Amino acid sequence: MTAFWRAVMKLAVMKLAGARARVGILGMTVILLIGAVGVGAIVYYSVPWSPRYAPASKPVYFSTLPPGAKLPSGAECARLVDESPSPENRPANKQFNATVGSPVGPGFLPAGDSPQVKTLVPLINGDFTGTTEDILRWVACKWGIDQDIVFAQAAVESWWDSNELGDWQSDPENCPPGYGLGADGKPGQCPESFGIVQNKYILEEPAWPAFGTSTAMNLDAAYAIWRSCYDGYEVWLNNEPRGKQYKAGDVWGCVGRWYAGSWYTPEADHYIAEVMQDLRDQIWEQPSFRNQLQPSATAG
User: What confidence tens digit (pLDDT) does each residue in 253-292 have?
Assistant: First the structure.
């Protein structure tokens, strides 16, 4: 090999090393040296960009939007969630997660709300499918609430179990269709509350049966109520027993109102503390949660 070709090969190797160091979004230039008897050429190939060369991107984190904020559409939230889907850790929710909801009538939210609440009702439809965590993130995006609060509240309510039945009672007038007294294995009783955040039939009848069959609808209806509270539309709360004056922009007051139906009463305060504790513990990241062990089982 002549001194000329040795120099050419050295230059090509140096350029190849440099090209390798420049791997990134624009791709990588590969330099090949082809030698033959007395003939040589440096050939450049441009390798198309591939996702394996791209830096890993973190999923969008959905935070609380202020009262009166313009909310993203359900379709926009679906797109953002679908860009970074989560694995399923609640296989038993499969049927609920694969079922979409339906629109609700104008009587869904309390008559004592401010008239502005009417703008929220048409947004409720439960129109999303995915894993349990994906649906929780979708509703956090859609209603502008911090996703970790949604995770924690769903843990307190059901341990992320869409099959959950609760608030068992014995008045047949409060039993939803198909859930008569004793029909679910408890003689003389029927459940009032259903799903991942335990929506109550007697308070949300216009959204039945969708919130009992669809995880997305269950959450969509619940956090529409949270948003109506957070935006300051639930003015009737100041006509009920309360620990302080109701006002817009109180994230935790509206979390407590979901459970107690009242504003900073002892029952609401206790519930808020439970959700805050699961939030601090990031309970959904703990092995016991991932293994679907309820707190009582873990303690026992």
Answer: 999 999 999 999 999 999 999 999 999 999 999 999 988 8
Identify whether the C-beta of residue 120 lies closer than 8 Å to the C-beta of residue 109.
yes
Mark the ranges of the chain whose per-residue pLDDT is less than 50: 2, 4-56, 297-300
Strands 28-36 and 39-47, how do they pair? antiparallel
Tally of residues, the chain: 300
Listed in sequence order, the residues at least 6 apart from 20 whose beta carbon sits closer than 8 Å to its beta carbon are 28
Residues 128, 130: Cα–Cα separation, whole Å: 7
CATH number of 74-299: 1.10.530
Q: Is the CB of residue 219 less than 8 Å from the CB of residue 139?
A: yes
Tokens encoding 190:
């029927």
Cβ pair 140, 152 in contact under 8 A = no
Q: Count the alpha carbons within 13 Å of 21 in the hemisphere toward its beta carbon.
A: 6
Bridge partners (DSSP) listed for residue 94: none
Domain ranges of the chain: 3-53, 74-299
- Spacing of C-alpha 63 from chain mean position: 11
Q: Give the max Cα distance, the chain.
A: 99
SS3 110: coil
